Amino acid sequence: SSQAPHLEAVPVGPLPAFVGWGMFRACVALVSVYTLLVSGYGAGATPDPYHRIHIHMEEGMGDPVEAARAWEEAAADKRWVAELSERRLRSQATLEAAASVLKAQGATVADLVKARPQ
């Protein structure tokens, strides 16, 4: 009984009963060598590095001085539009007043012409 017990090849997992560990290792080695040969690694081609870094840059902020200048320019444009609107309203009111004065003077002249002795 001092002899080592005889070990049998017992299938583990989904391997069929006739495939032992030696056969499994040989198949894995064969597939690995085939993969290396097909990929061109043995022909001097260098494999892709595993340390690739993909960087996605966000859109940066604009210049704060330029933003302040654009804001001031927009505010000045708004003030200018408001001033032009106010000028237009004042000139329209002036023209309407002048037209009313001319109409009133025309009516006065018409009354004087009617009242003039012949």
Fold and architecture overview:
The structure is a single chain. This protein has 118 residues and is mostly helical. Helices cover 60% and strands 0% of the residues. It has helices spanning 21-39, 64-115. 0% of the residues are buried. The model has no long low-confidence stretch (mean pLDDT 81).
Features:
118 residues, mainly alpha
H-E string: HH
Task: Give the end-to-end Cα distance, rounded to a whole number of Å.
Answer: 165 Å
Helix percentage range = 55-70%
Shape: rod-shaped
Low-confidence stretches: none
Q: What kind of assembly state do the chains in view correspond to?
A: single chain
Transmembrane segments: 23-43
Keywords: Membrane, Transmembrane, Transmembrane helix
Compact overview of the structure:
The chain contains two helices and no strands.
Sequence-ordered SSE layout with sheet pairings:
Blueprint: H1 21-39, H2 64-115
